[in-house]
Amino acid sequence: MAVKPIRLFGDPVLTTPAAEVTTFDKELRKLVKDLTETMLDAPGAGLAAPQLGVSLRVFTYDVDDEIGHLVNPVLDLSDEMQEGDEGCLSVPDLAFNTRRSMRVVAKGMTMHGEPVVLEGSELLARCIQHETDHLDGIMFVDRLDAETRKEAMKAIREAEWFGQQAPQVKISPHSISSRWL
User: Fold this and answer.
1) Chain centroid offset of residue 23 CA
2) The domain spanning residue 150 has which CATH number?
3) Of 27, 83, 86, 131, which is the active-site residue?
4) What 3-state DSSP class applies to 124?
5) Are the beta carbons of 46 and 130 closer than 8 angstroms?
């Protein structure tokens, strides 16, 4: 296990759909441990494999003192929506109002290849949607309305970290529950 550098906005791996996990082996278990350790160190509420430069459909989460992971997630989203500030470890120190489904049912696998269902609302639902977006090559800024996206892109271009390649970035707490997705 090790804390790994987190890829930053602009890295092509973050906008490339990740491959489905087909082998549930020691390497996958090591990836889940590295994701968890890096997420906790950041600190973050979630972290997807592409954020570490690994193009596989797996993410970890830490919401309401529940730490877990999900491999090959498939989501069923509620029609009821929520709005709230959302940040990202790949977009350090910035948060923007993002619209998400209020509840989610996520089906997937554990790192051992066992089927699992993860249900969440509010922050956990936001986290699951955010991390699954990473696996689909979608950044949360892609979900913003036009005006907010323009504001976000300006803030990103002006950020001190913009254009840097994969340093380990520690962020200051500044979003929902002081955690980043």
Assistant:
1) 22
2) 3.90.45.10
3) 131
4) helix
5) yes
Average pLDDT over residues 24-35: 97
- pLDDT for 181 equals 53
Q: Could you tell me if residue 5 is inside a domain?
A: no
Q: What total number of domains does the chain contain? A: 1
- Domain assignment of residue 119, yes or no: yes
The tokens describing 90, both together, are 């790949």
The CA distance from 130 to 138, in Å, is 9
Residue 20 domain-assigned? yes
Domain residue limits at 53: 12-176
* Whole-prediction pTM: 0.89
Residue 131 inside a domain? The answer is yes
Rg (CA), the chain: 15
Instruction: Determine what percent of the chain is predicted with pLDDT higher than 90.
Output: 88
Average pLDDT over residues 148-163: 93
Q: Which residues fall in the annotated binding site for Fe cation? A: 88, 130, 134
Q: For 159-175, what is each residue's pLDDT tens digit?
A: 999 887 654 443 333 33
Cite the annotated binding site by residue number: 88, 130, 134
Over residues 117-132, the mean pLDDT reads 97
Catalytic residue list contains 131? yes
